[in-house]
Amino acid sequence: MSKSELITLPKGEAVYPALSRPDTKFNDLGTYKANVRLKVDEALPTIKKIQTIAKAHLGKAMPAKDNKVWKYETDEDGNETGFVVFTIKVNNKLSKKTGKVWDRRPLVIDGKKKEIPADVNVWGGSVIRVQVEVYPYNLPNKGINLQPTIVQVIELVTGGGKGDTSAFDEEDGYEGEEGSDADTSGFDSEGDGSADDSDVDY
């Protein structure tokens, strides 16, 4: 199997995220989601990187505009909107060694790189930046998916609607009131990396 690689996407709009609690609609153990909506020109460098990995693993490029990893957004008339939505998700799994659920919630941090508590709900429309593991898999068929490792919340939209972000500039972004310093060394860099998943099936 090809080696996984870490890529950090540009900041974009969160689309139906599930970061506080996993979504159990299609997976009883839960799925964490950090889908991101980007302008096409901002998305193209990331698409190019993923296509390089896809060619090495699949022997060919993925469909250019509609596949399991990204999709060019269209309006109700089928016209492209100028945006791309990346599908970024990771499933909780049962450990073969312990029989317990492996909770695979990504690290969620604020603009100061401090961890955001799980009780803070990140809603769609929030501005986020996501580091993903580009994970090549072989079963049941060969493919590639994007699994979130770190999610930085730059502008928070939560339960009451869009919050007051006037105190934050673009560089500082959202800063949570709680949470400890998180180990985010290398968050702004890109390189190889993968979780120790020897006892878990993807």
Automatic annotation (TrEMBL):
InterPro entries in alphabetical order: NA-bd_OB-fold
Organism: Aminobacter anthyllidis
Comp. bias intervals (Acidic residues): 167-181, 189-202
Coiled-coil ranges (or none): none
Sequence segments annotated as region (Disordered): 162-202
Protein name as it appears in the record: Single-stranded DNA-binding protein
